[in-house]
């Protein structure tokens, strides 16, 4: 078999990775399109009929007008008088509509009914109208607030990558109100301030979580007495917190609802008095941004999460004849055009909502039709922007010029034609009706048919626009997938090649390789297949941690079984030392595997991850109930254990050097810094103060400098005196070629320095994680550290008994299982955003993002860092290759599997998942389950690249320094190092 | 670990490994398997008709019934095929089998926990009863036949190299039960919201299915074994 050279291997790998990267980028930009949003703000042109030409340019700019004039101008041209003068928007974060309106015609549960007596009475006597408002996924506060003020559903990437709030620049209600000179006041969640900086006259943004709602309500009485505002926003966060803490049925829920009811009561009584005193009509709108699941979580798209509420409470009895309407379902975005029309401002440009016709019932028929028309014009403009074919000169203009009268045609054909036709039907009917009005022949059926025609256009346009996000350029997607498949095939081929090659070198040594397939190998392949197959099922993606745990523990059980195979309990045959050694190895393996299984089980029980069974008891919940003092005790203990373990594995090494003391000392220092940080700043709120920041920054500096310095300097200062191991284990004293000895020595030094670097890497990574992760995750970090160390012990003694790719796959599984054990899941909600600001004094998106990545990918990265240790442990597994002394061959042996196997597994999962995503693009859960998972997969790919680069860079640097740059050193070492002992032909498997 | 310790304590004689295992004819093997299956069926029948419960409604109790029904059948049947009959009486083999029940249950219990079975008190009886049933399927026949010979245990369970017809009869159903149980765990995380997705119902179904399939397979192997022996003899 022709062997593949190191250079070609490298080139192929780089090519495959590059192709993968390009394919991934193409796919991502194709699949998550940045929606063509209309820029700018709606102005006067929104009250004119959309024309065939590009509008906007034809109209004079209205920005120069003073606010008051603009307001009157709007009133004049809109022909719909504003129904209210003042507006109070009360946002109750996370209130499910079910609590107030009940579910499916059933009234809400008795406890909730009784908790909100005033609101319920308002609903009962028709003073308030309530709707179930379906919120779009993701049901997280900020995107929902954006939707509620702009009427647009943001793209997925917009949501995913917008972790730090930025000013909202698209057209929205607040900007429109601001333009007509409204004075706005905001109390509550400071997200509003971040979204709309500078728009509020007064504000009290809160971030703290305890006194949240008191902070809002304490201003309320004062604000209601004042009359210097037009728009008051109250954002109550408390209910969401109650949900997060205790779920839907929390004992605090009823009292929180009562508190909200009191607020509604206060506002309503006040506004009623104002109305009596002729101080203007005030509309109170109570909305929630999203609902919550049984456990109080949100973010997904289940009914419980998307079931948000809209309550219109105004001085008019809107719909006393509409008693059953309390169970009507609308979309959350529908409130935007409704509010815009109620207050006489242009509808925001990107709105996809539809006017709630019930809310404008008090208008005349003419005005109602005008309102619908304005809404239709706005949607038609948006359609024009998104469907370039809809300029429909030949339809639109022809009709208006010809004015054929109310001929209603059946609407068929392409999307453009369809919308055009619907719109024209409505417009034609409306025009005809208007003409009839002049001739005073007013009939209700004509009116109703216009309403129906408008509603048909509005609802179909709105529906299509909201599904627009799934419209993807198929060419790009196919190209991306093809590139991914190609790179995946190249990587698989490479792994296959080097896997085939290894036996040919080692054939004389081990009969094992002649054997076709061992059960653990079969299982590793089978496990990958299972992973691939499980990606097609949304529930398997939600509960992915079960798969990784199951596979990891099964692989370890199989290793356990394998270790038992050679475990001999018979004491009679212990005479031979080799058998004794074998027995010891086997015992050592059995015990470390037992340790891995045990810690793995604890890790699994730590966080009940996933989506469906998060409410089941787990260790973290139990500890949180037990109290914070235990958690911080555990945190400190884990930190101390990590330090002790990290330093002691350094000193286990056989060849002791003075460098070790220095490294050990610096590790101890950074460990103590972390400990000091824990002891000093136990409570989370203190994390943000300056002193804590400084100590964390010092820790970052110490850790970073130590790691980089050690990697760079260590190969230079490692003494070339390792043959003592050979002399100790010396079996064959026959003469050998000096070059071989030198090579062997260098390899041993390489092994030692990689060992030190590997230990340093994983220990400092764990220390970093201890600092960054939530306190509850301290123990899992320690357990992961132990797992990886135990795996190293197992694999160091396994020799060639396991195949390398199986071991690396097992480690990869361990890393992934650990990823979920740290509380991560495939929803974006579990990303620990709070940790991303530790030790950062000024706000920086890049640094926060980096920290967030470090926190989230703690465990997969630990796997990659442990690869350095693994390479060191396995450095002498193929003595034949090493004695050949060919640099390429040695590097290939060292780096081949440890880099290629994870890259290949990752590439396989990425490719398959991309295909799954493509196939599932119309699935119900595409935005809530599949897309977030895809972001995780992409981030895992990034993690694989970074990890592989770190491993390759470390090993190659060490190799180059030892084998090439220290050529001069080797001659002097002969004199210094004393008698060189020739190498045994068969190199014994080395323990640590 | 536990397996090793328990075996170490009871290690007395090692001579048994050298002897050829007792062979078993095809008809006998068939009867043994048929009786085991009948025992299973009987347990289900009793649970269904007499107590009107099933695996889904009362997993713990049903599993216990299965164990109770299988216990005498398995121990009494397999003790007949004990190794080196000269030194080991029938009663002693029965005693070994009875001793094998808790040990096997412990091993299976630990295995299930390691693979992620819940450890809360609510699930403890279910896990224990499942482990008891597993023990009857996996280790009890082996402990009746092999006794405490570590080498034989290792050969059959760690290396899967059964030697002779009776060992096929021990080895295959045991492996079948374990593999079936492993596969039976897969539907558990799916969101079908069926009652049988609870631990250990689907796993028990998997176990029983795997056990039954492997029994049929073991009959085939026994048949093969006997035929090759006959050919050798001729």
TrEMBL record, chain A:
UniProt-listed PANTHER family: GPI ETHANOLAMINE PHOSPHATE TRANSFERASE 2, PHOSPHATIDYLINOSITOL GLYCAN-RELATED
Membrane topology field: Multi-pass membrane protein
Pathway(s) served: Glycolipid biosynthesis; glycosylphosphatidylinositol-anchor biosynthesis
GO cellular component, one term: endoplasmic reticulum membrane
Any one Gene Ontology BP term: GPI anchor biosynthetic process
CDD domains, sorted: GPI_EPT_2 (cd16024)
Protein's recorded name: GPI ethanolamine phosphate transferase 2 C-terminal domain-containing protein
InterPro entries per the UniProt record, alphabetical: Alkaline_phosphatase_core_sf (IPR017850), Phosphodiest/P_Trfase (IPR002591), PIG-G_N (IPR037674), PIGG/GPI7 (IPR039527), PIGG/GPI7_C (IPR045687)
Keywords: Endoplasmic reticulum, Glycoprotein, GPI-anchor biosynthesis, Membrane, Transferase, Transmembrane, Transmembrane helix
Domain GPI ethanolamine phosphate transferase 2 C-terminal, chain residue ranges per copy: 527-951
TrEMBL record, chain B:
Main location: endoplasmic reticulum
Compartments reported by the entry: Endoplasmic reticulum membrane
GO BP annotations, alphabetical order: GPI anchor biosynthetic process
Pfam families hit by this protein: PIG-F
Stretches the record annotates as Disordered: 1-21
InterPro entries (UniProt xref): GPI_biosynthesis_protein_Pig-F
Transmembrane spans: 29-47, 59-78, 99-124, 130-153, 165-185, 205-226
Pathway in which the depicted protein is active: Glycolipid biosynthesis; glycosylphosphatidylinositol-anchor biosynthesis
Keyword Lyase part of the UniProt annotation: no
Cellular component aspect of the GO annotation: endoplasmic reticulum membrane
Lipid bilayer topology: Multi-pass membrane protein
Keywords noted in UniProt: Endoplasmic reticulum, GPI-anchor biosynthesis, Membrane, Transmembrane, Transmembrane helix
Superkingdom field: Eukaryota
Keyword set includes Kinase: no
Biased composition (Polar residues): 8-17
Leader sequence residues: none
Name of the protein in question: Phosphatidylinositol-glycan biosynthesis class F protein
Naturally occurring in which organism (per UniProt): Sphenostylis stenocarpa
């Amino acid at each position: 078999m022709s062997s593949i050279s190191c250079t070609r291997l490298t080139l192929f790998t780089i090519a495959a990775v590059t192709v993968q990267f390009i394919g991934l980028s193409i796919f991502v930009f194709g699949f998550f399109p940045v929606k063509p949003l209309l820029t700018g703000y709606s102005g006067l042109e929104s009250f004119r009929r959309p024309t065939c030409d590009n509008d906007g340019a034809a109209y004079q700019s209205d920005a120069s007008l003073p606010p008051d004039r603009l307001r009157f101008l709007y009133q004049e041209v809109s022909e719909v008088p504003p129904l209210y003068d003042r507006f109070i928007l009360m946002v109750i974060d996370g209130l499910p509509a079910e609590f107030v309106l009940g579910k499916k015609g059933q009234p809400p549960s008795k406890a909730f009914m009784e908790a909100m007596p005033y609101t319920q009475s308002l609903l009962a006597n028709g003073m308030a109208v309530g709707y179930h408002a379906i919120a779009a996924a993701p049901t997280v506060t900020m995107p929902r607030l954006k939707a509620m003020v702009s009427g647009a559903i943001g793209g997925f990437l917009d949501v995913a990558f917008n972790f730090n709030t930025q000013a909202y620049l698209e057209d929205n209600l607040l900007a429109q109100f601001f333009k007509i000179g409204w004075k706005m006041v905001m109390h509550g969640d400071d997200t509003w301030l971040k979204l709309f900086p500078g728009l509020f006259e007064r504000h009290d943004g809160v971030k703290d979580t305890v006194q949240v709602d008191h902070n809002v309500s304490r201003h309320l009485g004062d604000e209601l007495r004042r009359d210097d505002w037009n728009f008051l926003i109250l954002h109550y966060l408390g209910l969401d917190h109650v949900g997060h803490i205790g779920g839907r049925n929390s004992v605090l829920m009823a009292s929180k609802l009562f508190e909200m009811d009191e607020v509604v009561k206060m506002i309503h009584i006040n506004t009623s008095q104002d109305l009596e005193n002729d101080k203007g009509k005030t509309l109170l709108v109570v909305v929630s941004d999203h609902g919550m699941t049984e456990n109080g979580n949100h973010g997904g798209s289940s009914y419980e999460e998307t079931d948000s509420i809209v309550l219109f409470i105004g001085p008019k009895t809107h719909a006393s004849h509409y008693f059953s309407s309390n169970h009507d379902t609308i979309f959350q975005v529908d409130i935007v055009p409704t509010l815009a029309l109620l207050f006489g401002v242009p509808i925001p440009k990107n709105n996809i909502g539809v006017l709630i016709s019930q809310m404008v019932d008090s208008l005349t028929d003419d005005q109602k039709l005008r309102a619908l028309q304005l809404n239709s014009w706005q949607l038609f403009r948006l359609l024009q922007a998104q469907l370039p074919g809809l300029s429909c000169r030949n339809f639109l203009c022809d009709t208006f010029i010809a004015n054929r009268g109310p001929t209603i045609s059946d609407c068929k054909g392409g999307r453009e034609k369809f919308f055009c036709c619907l719109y024209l039907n409505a417009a034609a009917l409306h025009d005809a009706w208007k003409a009839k009005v002049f001739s005073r022949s007013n009939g209700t059926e004509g009116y109703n048919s216009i309403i129906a025609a408008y509603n048909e256009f509005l609802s179909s346009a709105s529906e299509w626009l909201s599904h627009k996000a799934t419209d993807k350029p198929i060419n790009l997607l196919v190209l991306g997938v093809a590139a991914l498949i190609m790179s995946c095939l190249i990587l698989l081929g490479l792994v296959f090649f080097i896997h085939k090659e290894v036996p040919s070198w080692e054939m004389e040594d081990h009969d094992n390789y002649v054997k076709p397939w061992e059960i653990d190998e079969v299982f590793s392949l089978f496990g990958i297949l299972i992973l691939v197959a499980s990606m097609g099922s949304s529930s398997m993606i939600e509960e992915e941690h079960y798969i990784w745990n199951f596979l990891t523990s099964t692989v370890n059980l199989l290793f356990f079984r394998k270790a038992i195979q050679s475990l001999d309990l018979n004491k009679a045959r212990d005479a031979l030392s080799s058998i004794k050694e074998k027995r010891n190895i086997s015992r050592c393996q059995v015990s470390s595997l037992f340790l891995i299984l045990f810690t793995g089980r604890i890790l699994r029980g730590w966080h009940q991850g996933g989506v469906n069974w998060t409410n089941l008891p787990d260790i973290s919940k139990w500890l949180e109930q037990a109290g914070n003092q235990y958690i911080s005790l555990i945190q400190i203990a884990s930190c101390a254990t990590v330090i002790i373990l990290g330093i002691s594995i350094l000193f286990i090494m056989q060849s002791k050097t003075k460098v070790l003391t220095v490294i050990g000392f610096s590790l101890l220092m950074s460990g103590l810094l972390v400990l000091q940080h824990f002891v000093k700043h136990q409570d989370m709120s203190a994390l943000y103060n300056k002193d804590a920041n400084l100590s964390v920054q010092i820790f970052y500096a110490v850790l970073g400098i130590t790691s980089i310095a050690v990697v760079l300097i260590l190969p230079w200062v490692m003494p070339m005196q390792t043959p003592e191991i050979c002399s100790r284990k010396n079996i064959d004293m026959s003469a050998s070629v000096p070059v071989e000895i030198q090579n062997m020595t260098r390899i041993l030094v390489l092994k030692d320095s990689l060992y030190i670097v590997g230990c340093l890497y994983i220990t400092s990574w764990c220390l970093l994680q201890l600092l960054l992760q939530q306190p509850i995750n301290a123990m899992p970090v320690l357990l992961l550290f132990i797992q990886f160390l135990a795996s190293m012990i197992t694999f160091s003694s396994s020799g060639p008994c396991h195949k390398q790719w199986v071991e690396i796959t097992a480690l990869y599984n361990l890393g992934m299982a650990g990823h979920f054990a740290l509380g991560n899941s495939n929803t974006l909600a579990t990303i620990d955003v709070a940790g991303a600001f530790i030790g950062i004094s000024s706000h920086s998106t890049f640094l926060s993002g980096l920290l967030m990545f470090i926190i989230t990918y703690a465990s997969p990265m630990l796997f990659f860092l442990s690869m350095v240790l693994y390479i060191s442990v396995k450095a002498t597994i193929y003595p034949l290759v090493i004695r050949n002394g060919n640099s390429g061959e040695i590097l290939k042996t060292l780096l081949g599997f440890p880099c290629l196997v994870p890259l290949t597994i990752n590439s396989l999962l990425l490719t398959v998942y991309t295909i799954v995503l493509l196939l599932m693009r119309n699935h119900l859960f595409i935005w809530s389950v599949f897309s977030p998972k895809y972001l995780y997969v992409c981030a895992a790919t990034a993690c694989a690249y970074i990890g592989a680069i770190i491993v390759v860079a470390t090993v190659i640097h060490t190799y180059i320094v030892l084998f090439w740059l220290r050529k001069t050193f080797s001659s002097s070492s002969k004199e210094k190092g004393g008698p060189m002992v020739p190498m045994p032909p068969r190199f014994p498997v080395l323990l640590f | 670990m536990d397996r090793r310790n328990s075996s170490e304590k009871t290690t007395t004689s090692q001579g048994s490994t050298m002897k050829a295992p007792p062979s078993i004819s095809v008809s006998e093997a068939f009867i043994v398997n048929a009786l085991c299956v009948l025992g299973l069926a009987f347990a289900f029948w009793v649970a269904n008709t007499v107590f009107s419960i099933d695996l889904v409604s009362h997993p713990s109790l049903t599993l216990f019934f299965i164990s109770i029904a299988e216990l005498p059948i398995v121990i009494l049947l397999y003790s007949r095929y004990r190794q080196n009959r000269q030194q080991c009486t029938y009663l002693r083999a029965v005693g070994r089998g009875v001793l094998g029940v808790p040990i096997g249950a412990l091993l299976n219990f630990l295995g299930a926990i390691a693979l992620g079975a819940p450890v809360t008190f609510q699930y403890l009886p279910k896990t224990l009863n499942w482990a008891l049933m597993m023990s009857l399927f996996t280790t009890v026949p082996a402990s009746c036949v092999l006794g405490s010979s570590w080498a034989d245990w290792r050969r059959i369970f760690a290396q899967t190299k059964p030697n002779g017809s009776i060992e096929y009869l021990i080895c295959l159903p045991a492996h079948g039960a374990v593999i079936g149980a492993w596969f039976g765990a897969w539907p558990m995380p799916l969101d079908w919201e069926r009652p049988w997705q609870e631990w250990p119902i689907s796993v028990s179904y998997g176990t029983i299915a795997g056990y039954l399939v492997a029994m049929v397979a073991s009959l085939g192997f026994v048949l093969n074994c006997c035929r090759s022996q006959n050919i050798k003899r001729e």
